[in-house]
Write a structure and sequence with these properties.
heterodimer, A: 477 residues, mainly alpha, Formate dehydrogenase/DMSO reductase fold, 69% helix, B: alpha+beta
Chain lengths: 477, 177
Amino acid sequence: MSATEHTADAPAILREVKPAVLPRAALVTNNRSFSWITEKICGIIEEKTPRWWWICFGVAAFVASWTVMGLTYLVATGVGVWGHHNPINWAWDIVNFVFWIGIGHAGTLISAILCLLRQKWRTSINRAAEAMTIFAVVCAAIFPVFHVGRIWYALMPGWLFPFPNANVIWQNFRSPLEWDVFAVSTYGTVSVLFWYIGLIPDLAILRDRFYASGKKIRSFLYGLFAMGWRGSNRHWSNYEMGYMILAGISTPLVLSVHTIVSFDFAVSLIPGWHTTIFPPYFVAGAIFSGFGMVLTLMLPLRAVYKLEDLITQYHIDCMCKITLATGTMVGYAYAMEFFIAWYGANPNEGFAFINRAFGHYAWAYWIMISCNVITPQLFWFKKVRHNTALVWVLSIFVNVGMWFERFVIIVTSLARDFLPSSWGYYSPSIVEIFTFFGTFGVFSVLFLLFIRFLPVMPMAEIKAVTPQGDPHADSHH
Amino acid sequence: MSAQPHGLIATFDSAAAIYHAAEQVRDAGYKRWDCITPCPIHGLDGAMGVRRSRVPSFSLAGGITGFCTGMTMIWWTGAVDYKLTVGGKPLFSPMFAFPISYELTILFTAFATIFGIFVLNRLPMHHHPVLKYDHIIRGLDDKFFVVIEAADPKFDGKATRALLEQAGGKNITELEA
């Protein structure tokens, strides 16, 4: 870009003062061509399945089988196989649900909010991040559906979706749990639609490439979903407008979903839950945890497939900085909760927070504080952000910390009910532990299938942000 | 095989080249023609004279439908079909109906937007003369094409070819219909 020179059509004042021009970071380094981008990304799908993929897939499938076994045992036996008991009737199930849903939010943030803010660096990571969103929603959905025990009731008319039940009574639409059903199912659906729309031009490339290399069946399958896309600019015009609208509606969607998830708690009267800070605090936490997971996934992907020219150090810097910003907001929210508990002068509220930090679950609280408040602060340092291995390790801490945040919020408040006679201590059962850790297997299986069969980066979008994609790169209009 | 070809296709090597070619074809007064590009090119709509997309009208209609669906559903189910009194509160209030109506607004807008994209683009259309072009694979990879259809009233085999040549088009070929 010849932005350093101001030509005749620039305002006269600019020619006089010659403002300093800050160089923009290149989003695709080494001046890669369009065909290099196509080859690089399609090559991942077209090459023979690498051995590491089969090994990872095997491990992931084995881990996923824990979830399958745990859930089968649960359905066959009853929810008693989990560690819930009075007064803690909500525990790992909702912790895991909120944890996974939160992870999904970074995908939508990257694909929608950063799109509206014209953050062009999002292009390299948005496809994988959206895939992450969808798979995280799948993992999240397991818990609310199965925590009812008799899952056929969750899917039967009269329970979740608006059909009258056996007594022809409809749902209570005043309940935040019912709002959650709509929020999460809308979120899952819109994420899939948004992802699919983004995939169409790339599927068309794969259709043509498989056709050219004589793989007719694969060409047919990709072609079926490419909808006959032919790169027409009249199509791009509608496509771009539609994409922008989808980004525009996904932005309020992602904010509303975690707001409604936080209403599950905030609308109740339990000390430690009944706070107005919950919606923004949950949304910041969700994006924080999601960026942790994006880094956890993208850094190995970048290393394995040598995608350094597409996911540059600049991209990693940006992700680390968002993690830092949202992590700091989360830290602020922790402090503010304590302040309000004291300032509000409600003894139950005050006790709930003292109990969090110094009660029986203090160990969980301090894991949360060290992972969520201290870890992200390291991203202030360039040296840390440039050490990819360290960034990866820190991203794991973020994931762990955010899981503990939900655990602390949910379990500590319930464990100390209003009357000491109904106090308890919750420990997960072995079934719960395996069911939860198995969801990482479920997630990994889905993600591995994604990188094997779908383009991990949106080729068309990346091309559009390179200098070659700019029709005015060599002239001025 | 029909005698009339679908039209002429010309290849361009860069985004800038197709941008200028599009301006020339637009100024020559053609209406039924298109550019094939691997990615959306900034400003090409203007260079082609394509009007602003009508997708937003679909989205708006979808959004309004979604919001009304949510409000009506909650009002009808809880205040009409089976009156459900909870905590002695009114049978219906837009306040508690809002979160679900809000989500349905977004859900319906998303479906309507995608429906709009497909309808306005006349997709899915798995067979199109442009897709039969031998080098179309490059059109989604790194080349840029201009296609002028024979159905355009101004289309004239020789004059159109000359225009594409003058605009810098290479490898000008007739597309089978």
